[in-house]
Design goal:
The complex is a heterodimer of chains A (105) and B (228).
Chain A (H helix, E strand, L loop, with lengths): L1 H22 L7 H7 L2 H5 L1 H9 L12 H16 L2 H19 L2
Chain B lengths: L3 H12 L3 H17 L4 H11 L2 H12 L4 H12 L2 H12 L4 H8 L4 H13 L6 H26 L12 H10 L6 H17 L7 H20 L1
Helix pairs in contact in B: 1-9, 2-4, 2-9, 2-10, 3-4, 3-9, 4-5, 6-8, 8-9, 11-12
Classes of the chains: A mainly alpha (105), B mainly alpha (228).
């Protein structure tokens, strides 16, 4: 039964990857749709970022003192000015670790 | 003109920074599967067959918690439906390929690979073999994901939980979109999506992952209309 679930889940997931690439002709999408598609990264990724930063493991809002908030702010500022992916991630992690290992100890 | 292998290599380099979150996440995924009591082969099969980080963890948690297959499969489908949006965007660069090549490349469409490919290809519209870039990002992420889940399965969670490496996940995605904060229209769409995700977080089947982008894209559509 578990194997069955894995395989069906795999087919469903593969379909979601393949459908728009292999089954849909781009001509079928109007110019309006194509314009809106420019916003896909802006529309998808905040839905992963916001809960990851603002919610704790139990799905409730974090306190204003939560280290994640400050790590995210540092990453945001560093990322905005450096335009560099690795600097963004590392600065966020380092400031987060600095708070949990030094300030909160 | 860039050769195919150079383009492929550029794709590899573009996703390397994301390994900071992909590898720990893969290790955690493998380790969680074992902790939940699944057979190692089954745990690995989720990486090979489903190949979708968060959805694999939720899939295994649901099944081990006694949820029906239907609930587990529906959750995976809902969480991974965001790939439809990635495919719609990337299809612009894949339309000239044969059907078989499209089927092959589709397997490698993942969040970080999509994001980096989209960023690069938008600025290099005249590239002759854009699919090599997408492949470079996807194949790299695929290998690292397979190897890291395998090491999590074998060694358990050898990354100390105190490090809070889960936090690297929102950070990678932040790194992906941070440059778009310079464009007010994108900022608007991001805020709509972000707040929608906080409000919809408890919707069934983790559907906030796809509902929030849909709300945000509708907002983008209305915004474009009003601007005209």
């Amino acid at each position: 039964m578990t194997w069955f679930s894995i395989i069906v889940s795999g087919i469903v997931t593969y379909f979601s990857r393949m459908a728009m690439v292999a089954l849909i002709d781009r001509e079928m999408l109007g110019t309006k749709v194509k314009e809106v598609l420019n916003y896909v990264p802006a529309a998808v990724f905040p839905a992963i970022i916001f809960p990851g930063v603002f919610f704790n493991d139990f799905g409730s809002l974090v306190e204003i003192t939560d280290p994640k908030l400050y790590g995210a702010i540092v990453a945001l500022v560093v990322g905005f000015y450096s335009r560099n992916v690795i600097a963004t991630i590392i600065s966020g992690l380092l400031s987060y670790w600095f708070i949990i290992f030094f300030l909160l100890k | 003109m860039l050769s195919k292998s150079k383009i492929f290599f550029k794709g590899i380099v573009a996703v390397l920074p994301h390994m900071l979150s992909v590898i720990p996440f893969g290790i955690i995924t493998g380790a969680i599967g074992i902790e939940l009591g699944f057979d190692p082969i089954l745990v690995y099969a989720t990486s090979l067959i489903i190949f979708g980080g968060a959805s694999q963890i939720i899939f295994m948690q649901l099944l081990s918690g006694g949820a029906s297959s239907l609930v587990a499969i529906t959750s995976v489908g809902v969480i991974n439906s965001r790939h439809l949006l990635y495919g719609a965007v990337l299809s612009e660069y894949l339309e000239k390929l044969s059907f078989l090549k499209k089927l092959f490349i589709s397997y490698f469409i993942v969040d970080q690979g999509f994001a980096e490919s989209n960023k690069y290809l938008k600025q290099n519209k005249n590239l002759s073999n854009p699919h090599y870039y997408i492949l470079g990002t996807g194949v790299t992420l695929w290998f690292c994901w397979q190897l890291s889940t395998i090491s999590g399965i074998i060694l358990g969670s050898f990354i100390p939980e105190e490090l809070g490496l889960k936090f690297a996940i929102p950070l990678t995605f932040l790194a992906i979109i941070v440059n778009d904060l310079r464009k007010l229209d994108h900022v608007f769409v991001m805020l709509v999506s972000g707040f929608a995700s906080l409000i919809l977080f408890n919707a069934p089947f983790k559907s906030y992952i796809i509902l929030s982008p849909i709300v945000a894209l509708i907002a983008a559509f209305i915004m474009l209309r009003l601007r005209k």
